[in-house]
Amino acid sequence: MAAASAERNVRVARVVPLLKLRHLGDRVFDYLIPADLDNRVTKGAVVTVPFGSRTARGVVVALGSASDADISELRPIGAVEDESIPAGSLDLARALADRYLASFESCLRLVAPPKKTAGAGGAGRPRSQWVFPTAPQASSACGQKAEVVAAGAVVAAGEVEVRLTIKQRAVLEAITPGGSAVTEVCRTVGVGPGVVRTLARKGLVVLGPAPAQPLQTAHRDGSTESSEEIPSLRPEQEAVVAELIAAFAGPGLARRVLWGVTGSGKTEVYLRLVARALDDGAGAILLVPEIALTPQMISRVRSRFGDRVGVLHSGLSAGEKLREYRRIRAGHAPVVIGARSAVFAPVPNLRLIVIDESHDTSSKQEEEPRYHTRVVAKMRLQADGGLLLEGSATPSVESMAQPADLLRLTRRAAGTPPVCEVVDMRRQGGGDLLAPVARDALAETLRRGEQAIVLLNRRGYAGYVHCGLCGHVMVCASCELSLTFHSRIRRLVCHHCGMSVPQPPLCPSCGEAPLVRAAPGTERLDRELRALVPREQVFRLDSDVLTSGTRVREVLTAFAEARPAVLVGTQMVAKGHDFAHVTLVLVADADTGLYIPDFRAAERTFQLLTQVAGRAGRAEKPGRVLVQTWNPDVPCIRMALEREESRFYEQELESRRRLGYPPYVDLIRVMTSSEQAERAQVGIRYLLERLNPHLPSGEIRGAVRLPMLRGRSRWHLLIATREGERARMLVKEALAQLQEPYRRRGVALLVDVDPQSFN
Ligand code: ADP
Ligand code: ZN
Q: How far apart are CA 400 and CA 396, in angstroms?
């Protein structure tokens, strides 16, 4: 008895280290709580702990006790951060891990406060090093050249001729006229900082600190709205706002889909709702696909709500992120605008979440945890109620499954609906990308001093290259996917792993004939346009020339102010932009997304065409849309052109029902991958045998071999089930048991619940 009473119980903290250590599963580690930290170590506290030979950031997920005897092995917590994770967010992380079969750790990361770095919290953190162009060559309008010079090219720097390597030249071309972060440039081009330093030594660039960049720059980005002008609502908008406010104020969680044609004034509807939430003392989150592509939206929100707006985006420094986080958490910024991860913003009394352009693929994260913002938004609003509003001109087919949730805006607030014309490429001669009628329309538009947008949803110069004689296609050795020719660097590039090789002079397979460049991309289109249109009138927007948010804004701002002008690019040109002087939209190839192995191929094509057409004629002047296609009779193309939106959704839903795809079933994708081909295959087969007896027949589709990626062989299977919850539990059990043995055999297991992509 005496012995038992002598045994003290000591408080311990159960900690999940924020480390990507998948082999640990979701293990929780116990730590001692030092006396001086005792009152600060609570559930949700973010702590620094010794972990093996290093220290790690971790989250206290529970407090417990251990007897004296058990604590001899335990090490103490090192430090506690000022910001902890609120209880609700811990629960959210747990729910998210369950819903997406993800590790708890990966979900905790999303709700954890931004990491405090040395000097963070103040604005005084030294900025990263930047590089600025000096030679005229480095500052061409959009960083690309029509004529590219091969390796060893000679450029003039002042009076001296300097020889450049391919990498050096690529670096020069990646630098924006206003300068770029060194890390950014190096990442884009795939070189080390040494290349930049060499260029600096040659006097071709200058290194320096980042230019000061006040967060408020967004105010000036193409916005014409002053803080005073609040337009009165059109009747259609009025009705929608009234309904949404009723839904917002009602009990529990309401979810609505606002299907409003492009230019119908959805943003104004959002702003009215946010105002209403603020009046009620509630907080709101407004999610946009990509901050850099939506400067107008941000400036409108800012000019309406001033410093009550918090903006979260990846371009913020660690210090700025933390400052914004604290402002939001303290209730000083009850309106938060940001991209996907802003759905986790710690807004107090959160009652409204708006997902703008909800159909956009950015709504789903493509790394663990593979969450969808719609699902997270629902989880967040579940407890206290409120409104989840998804807005789009082209909602996803899945959003259309519950017609009761649907609200419509059918007319444009300003301007007239664009008129679409098809250009049947089967009847066009010549090897040019743009048909004569398209060229004429472009020339005419520019002659009137107006603007045009040209869409081609394929990067590079040629999507693939093949032998004209034997047909051999050049593929990446570690990805089994075709290589894209990029004329800027004159290399064949793998878009999956980044590997690049010079284009061989002759087909490496038969050695008889030169390679032919097929599937023209934006680089080629850009070149063709520069032959038709003065250089300074052409602006390009695609991920090859634009890797930083600043750069995207620069091009968009420059284009907005230039007239006449033409903006050419990939799907980025189709996103939400509101340019008053765009009167012509050309789609160079409507067929790029048709024949990919994805049940959403038709939906994506329909959305892209409808969205890009919506960029034309948004102000007084009417818009014209010309769509080049080899497949004018394919339903998704025809219905987009004829603006038969309702019919498209009806047909698509019907075919999904017939074939058993979402929204009629839930999908779970499981993938194995390994550097050893047979192991990936054995892994998927074993999994298949294990799952099969527990699921109704036909619910497992597969297994299918996928193209190798980054040297790893891959197999996947798809579960298409009416009982998503049950299937998730089954897969979860299988994962719990198999992940570790598979890992030891060099097989990675990946699960994607509600997959949006099948690459
Ligand atoms: P959407 O997001 O639906 O594409 P926007 O919200 O960008 O449309 O609105 C398109 C244009 O119409 C914008 O320039 C906006 O300022 C204007 N607008 C919206 N609502 C009204 C209104 N009630 N009265 C006048 N102009 C409006
Ligand atoms: Zn590759």
A: 7
Residue among 756, 422, 362 at smallest CA distance from 609? 422
Q: Quote the CA–CA distance of 495 and 483 in Å, as a whole number.
A: 7
Residue 414 near ligand 1, beta carbon < 6 Å: yes
580 lines ligand 1 (CB under 6 A): no
Ligand nearest to the CA of 495: 2
Please, which residues have CB less than 5 A from ligand 2, an ion?
476, 478-479, 494, 496-497, 499
Q: Note the ligand closest to the C-alpha atom of 268.
A: 1
Q: What is the dihedral of CA 381, 385, 387, 388, to 10 degrees?
A: 30
pLDDT bin (cut points 50, 70, 90) of residue 134 is low
Q: Contacts by 508-515 with C-beta closer than 8 Å and gap 24+?
A: 508/472, 508/474, 509/467, 509/470, 509/472, 510/467, 510/469, 510/470, 510/472, 512/467, 512/469, 512/470, 513/467, 513/468, 513/469, 513/470, 514/468, 515/465, 515/466, 515/467, 515/468, 515/474
Q: Is the dihedral of CA 165, 166, 168, 172 positive or negative?
A: positive
Provide DSSP, 513-581. S-EEEEEE-HHHHHHHHHHHS-GGGEEEESTTT--SHHHHHHHHHHHHH-SSEEEEESGGGGSS---TT
Closest CA to 186 of 199, 201, 174, 203: 174
How many other CB atoms sit within 10 Å of the CB of residue 2? 5
Mean pLDDT of 542-567: 83
Count of residues in the chain: 759
* Tokens standing for residue 321: 């992120």
Pocket lining: 391 vs ligand 1, CB cutoff 6 Å: no
Is the pLDDT reported for residue 176 higher than 90? Answer: no
Of residues 523, 373, 366, 402, the one with CA closest to residue 456: 523
CA–CA gap between residue 142 and residue 150 (Å, rounded): 19
Smallest Cα–Cα separation from 573: which of 587, 591, 558? 587
Q: CA-CA distance, 289 to 577, in Å (whole number)?
A: 12
Whether residue 342 contacts residue 77, with contact meaning beta carbons closer than 8 Å, is answered with no
Report whether 60 contacts 40 (CB < 8 A): no
Atom of ligand 1 nearest to the CA of 414: 12
Q: How far apart are CA 31 and CA 23, in angstroms?
A: 20
Predicted confidence at residue 153, as pLDDT, reads 37
Buried b (16+ CB within 10 A) or exposed e, 519-544: bbbbbbbbbbbbeebeeebbbbbbeb
Torsion sign, CA atoms 204, 210, 211, 215: positive
Q: b vs e for 651-678, b when ≥16 Cβ sit within 10 Å of the residue's Cβ?
A: bbbeebeeebbbeebbbbbbbbbbeeee
CB 268 less than 6 A from any atom of ligand 1: yes
Q: Cβ(370)–Cβ(333) under 8 Å? A: no
Whole-number Å distance between alpha carbons of 46 and 58: 6
Cα separation values, 353 from 148, 448, 741, Å: 47, 42, 41
What six digits make up the tokens of 447? 């002659």
Ligand 1 close to Cβ of residue 233 (< 6 A): yes
Look at residue 462 and give its three-state secondary structure.
Answer: strand
Cβ atoms of residues 639 and 602 within 8 Å: no
Say yes or no: CB of residue 413 within 6 Å of ligand 1: yes
Q: What is the SS3 assignment for 378-403?
A: HHHHHCCCEEEEEEECCCCHHHHHCH
Among the bound ligands, name the one nearest to the CA of residue 392: 1
Residue range 645-656, pLDDT digits in tens: 999 999 999 999
**Ligand 1 pocket check for 522: Cβ under 6 Å:** no
For atom 6 of ligand 1, the residue with the nearest CA is: 265
- Residue 157 confidence class, pLDDT cut points 50, 70, 90: very low
- Supply 113's token pair: 């406060």
